[in-house]
């Protein structure tokens, strides 16, 4: 690779760099008692990290947290405060010109606030005024016009109450961040194996012989995963990675908990093969793997062998093999190589590793889910695993790596726009009401509803919705037409400034803070990526005496809004979470048996998964081979001059929260206003690395979308693929460009063109034109 080209994967994940990343946030936030707090992170009777959803082991390390988990905690526990006096000094029109980074840097929100139109800012109000004000608007509204979004962090207890509140109010409009994330999994995986979540548990990584690893970046997004990956490699397990970007976290790792490795600076090499697949090329790449496996099987049988497929498993447990085999045999290697960008010989070598392994795990993240045909990519990965019975046994299975720390759990306890996934009959009995049966709105449908005027009220339990969704410019203007916006939040963000006519900003406790209700400390719980439920107990002093917990805020709103009923004592629930857990257990008795007693068990308790037991809750009652209808997951294919943009997370952000401007693991420092392109493409476009470029939409719908002021940076990427940061690039994503089955926005294959920036001023990426 030529000199000056970034992304060649020469940076090491973990190691001293990760400690210095933590130290920088520590020095800036100066949190009190941070070390005492961090020692309790992810430990039994401590609090569960609020960053990612990676599993929590039964036998934790002395420090069971990673660089980014520590950053998340330090960010929460900052000494800086966003007070009513701050808002007195700034109108929202002014704050809308600030960068997102600067908004969150103001610090923790301290008091409940109400929007005042005459002053154009938030002003202090009492909790009771807030609850009554929200109730007045909601009661005056058609219940179908209100939406209840959740961002994936709130506990199981808060989430259960939130979903119940929406349903008693009268709708199933309960989208959550999962709709932009792993909804492709919830829909795609459910269809083929009958389970909407992964089948693996953490221990499986101690027994697998190969990991086929697609589109997930553990170095940044789930760093504690690097430990089991390192252990696996040391045992001889082979990791085969498919990713357009050579992510340092999948290449070399120095374990910060291993003094010898730290001192000698000798990394473990993680990936056995690193295949830089084109964006959306996974369908063809896996087709190539399967084609070779079928060919090997046929050759072996022709010579009197048993073949390489697990025939007994296929006969007993699956449906649809023949159609899929015909498709694989018919697929041409030329086409496979063209769509995947990978060579036949590499794919055959990878398939040989698959065949040699007794136990294989398929891991994936946003690189598969955020595509127009993302659900078909997931179907292909399942096909690969089914060929050799790699589902529903120890050391094997499918492992989607979930995002927010309780995003999977929120779905488990009823935050879902899909009423068929919720035991409505039981809720009706338990709470004496008639639950709404109509389908609720997904994230995309919420955006359409706000745009078209059907949605009038938007409530948000955490998150930064307008920054996370596609089509930013149009959406922000539409949001300003709403009657009511309610934001339950910890820190100020862009969404709070894009408010409705009536708006409330309600500050809540973070997970590491002590939650005391009527004198009694309260624990909460969450579900990790492996369907294990963990209790969490905060100890740190709250950022302000006026903060309330999420369950008590929800209870306050519900109590003020909904007709009183003896079976729905909201305020009692909001003050005693054990009672809420009893309700959850009653609603889901199979999964939550002895809930309160078991939630502090080491390693959490497993709520079970039929697919892990080889019970397939699909329409055929079997695990299903699916034949893809397309050769690439891209919704709009390649064409001369067109690039496919992958929107990326830096190592210094948590979603829309930007901790800083260092993407250490990719060797990119100091700015997020960059556009990454391969040296060959830079030449072919007649551009020069270092110059300023604009990216414009090439979605063919006539809508002008543009992000400018980007420094063109040479980066090791496949031809035709460019990279830019989420959320800065979201203005380029059409609302209609989403996974066909689940409506997850296709943030990893956005069709665009690149041109030299003619404007002399560098565009301010993070503020928009609306005033
Ligand atoms: N520190 C930190 N931790 C986080 C988050 C964070 O922002 N910061 N976010 C949390 C959330 S909500 C989520 S959902 C997860 C997200 O975690 P990930 O699933 O890792 O998501 P991304 O970083 O968006 O992208 C994943 C990878 O997909 C690759 N990729 C892009 N397109 C393709 C493709 O077509 N095929 C293949 N095979 N690969 C592709 C990218 O290069 C990237 O390495 O992390 C969670 N954890
Ligand atoms: N282009 C592009 N767009 C994407 C993605 C992508 O990869 N590319 N990824 C998508 C994905 S995977 C996701 S999950 C979404 C994320 O979308 P969201 O979940 O909506 O966004 P976050 O940035 O995680 O929300 C951050 C805000 O949450 C609030 N917050 C933090 N902690 C708490 C808490 O404990 N309680 C409460 N009430 N509030 C809290 C703070 O005010 C903070 O500003 O974005 C999606 N958008
Ligand atoms: Mo996510």
From TrEMBL:
Keywords: 4Fe-4S, Iron, Iron-sulfur, Metal-binding, Molybdenum, Oxidoreductase. Its cofactor is [4Fe-4S] cluster; Mo-bis(molybdopterin guanine dinucleotide). Gene3D superfamilies: 3.40.50.740, Dimethylsulfoxide Reductase, domain 2. Signal peptide: none annotated. Residues 643-750 form the Molybdopterin dinucleotide-binding domain. Residues 108-487 form the Molybdopterin oxidoreductase domain. The keyword Ribosomal protein does not apply. InterPro entries: Asp_de-COase-like_dom_sf, MopB_CT_YdeP, MoPterin_dinucl-bd_dom, Mopterin_OxRdtase, Mopterin_OxRdtse_a_bac, Prok_molybdopt-oxidoreductase, YdeP_MopB. CDD domains: MopB_CT_ydeP, MopB_ydeP. Pfam families: Molybdopterin, Molydop_binding. Belongs to the prokaryotic molybdopterin-containing oxidoreductase family. This is FdhF/YdeP family oxidoreductase. It comes from Luteibacter sahnii.
């Amino acid at each position: 690779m030529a000199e000056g080209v970034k992304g060649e994967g020469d940076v090491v994940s973990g190691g001293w760099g990760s400690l210095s990343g933590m130290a920088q946030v520590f020095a800036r936030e100066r949190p009190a008692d941070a070390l005492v707090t961090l020692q309790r992170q992810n430990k039994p009777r401590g609090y569960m990290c609020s960053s990612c959803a990676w599993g929590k082991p039964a036998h934790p390390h002395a420090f069971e947290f990673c660089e980014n988990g520590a950053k998340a905690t330090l960010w929460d526990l900052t000494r800086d405060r966003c007070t009513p006096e701050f808002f007195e000094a700034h109108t929202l029109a002014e704050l809308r010109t600030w960068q997102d980074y600067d908004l969150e840097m103001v610090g923790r929100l301290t008091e409940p606030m109400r929007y005042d139109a005459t002053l154009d800012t938030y002003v202090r109000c009492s909790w009771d005024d807030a609850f009554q004000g929200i109730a007045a608007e909601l009661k005056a509204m058609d219940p179908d016009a209100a939406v209840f979004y959740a961002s994936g962090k709130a506990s199981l207890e808060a989430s259960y109450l939130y979903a119940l509140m929406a349903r008693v109010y009268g709708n199933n409009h309960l989208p959550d961040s999962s709709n932009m994330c792993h909804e492709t999994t919830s829909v795609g995986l459910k269809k083929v194996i009958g389970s909407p979540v992964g089948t693996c548990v953490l221990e499986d990584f101690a027994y697998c012989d190969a990991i086929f690893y697609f589109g997930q970046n553990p170095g940044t997004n789930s760093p504690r995963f690097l430990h089991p990956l390192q252990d696996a490699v040391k045992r001889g397990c082979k990791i085969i990675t498919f990713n357009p970007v050579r992510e340092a976290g999948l290449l070399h790792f120095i374990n910060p908990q291993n003094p010898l490795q730290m001192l000698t600076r000798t990394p473990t090499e993680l990936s056995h093969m690193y295949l830089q697949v084109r964006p959306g090329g996974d369908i063809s790449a896996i087709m190539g793997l399967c084609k070779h496996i079928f060919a090997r099987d046929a050759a072996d049988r022709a010579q009197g062998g048993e073949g390489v497929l697990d025939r007994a498993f296929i006969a007993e447990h699956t449906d649809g093999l023949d159609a899929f085999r015909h498709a694989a045999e018919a697929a041409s290697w030329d086409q496979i190589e063209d769509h995947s960008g990978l060579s036949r010989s590499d794919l055959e070598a990878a398939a040989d590793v698959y065949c040699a392994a007794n136990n294989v795990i398929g891991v994936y993240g946003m690189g598969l889910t955020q595509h127009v045909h993302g659900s078909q990519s997931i179907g292909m990965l399942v096909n690969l695993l089914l060929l050799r019975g790699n589902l529903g046994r120890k050391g094997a299975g499918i492992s989607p790596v979930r995002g927010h720390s309780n995003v999977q759990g929120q779905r488990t306890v009823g935050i879902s726009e899909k009423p068929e996934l919720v035991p409505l009959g039981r809720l009706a009995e338990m709470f004496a009401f008639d639950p709404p049966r109509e389908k609720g709105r997904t994230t995309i449908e919420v955006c359409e509803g706000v745009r078209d005027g059907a949605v009038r009220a938007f409530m948000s339990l955490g998150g930064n919705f307008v920054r996370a969704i596609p089509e930013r410019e149009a959406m922000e203007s539409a949001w300003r037409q709403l009657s009511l916006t309610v934001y339950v939040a910890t820190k100020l963000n862009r969404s709070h400034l894009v408010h409705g006519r009536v708006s409330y900003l309600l500050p809540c406790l973070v997970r590491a803070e002590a939650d005391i209700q009527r004198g009694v400390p309260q624990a909460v719980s969450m579900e990790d990526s492996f369907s294990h439920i963990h209790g969490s107990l905060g100890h740190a002093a709250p950022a302000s005496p006026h903060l309330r917990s999420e369950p008590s805020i929800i209870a306050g709103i519900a109590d003020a809004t909904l007709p009183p009923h003896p079976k729905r004592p909201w305020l009692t629930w909001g003050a005693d979470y054990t009672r809420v857990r009893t309700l959850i257990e009653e609603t889901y008795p199979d999964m939550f048996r002895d809930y309160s007693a078991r939630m502090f068990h080491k390693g959490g308790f497993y709520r079970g998964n039929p697919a892990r037991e080889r019970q397939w809750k699909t329409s055929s009652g079997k695990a299903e081979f699916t034949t893809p209808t397309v050769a690439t997951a891209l919704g709009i294919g390649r064409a001369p001059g067109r690039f496919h943009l992958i929107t990326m997370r830096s190592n210094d952000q948590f979603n829309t929260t930007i901790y800083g401007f260092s993407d250490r693991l990719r060797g990119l420092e100091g700015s997020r206003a960059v556009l990454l392109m391969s040296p060959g493409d830079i030449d072919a476009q007649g551009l020069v690395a270092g110059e300023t470029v604009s990216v414009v939409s090439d979605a063919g719908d006539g809508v002008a979308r543009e992000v400018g002021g980007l420094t063109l940076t040479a980066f090791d990427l496949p031809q035709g693929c460019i990279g830019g940061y989420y959320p800065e690039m979201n203005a380029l994503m059409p609302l209609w460009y989403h996974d066909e089955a689940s409506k997850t926005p296709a943030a990893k294959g956005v069709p665009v063109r690149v041109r030299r920036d003619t404007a002399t001023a560098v565009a301010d990426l993070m503020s928009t034109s609306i005033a």
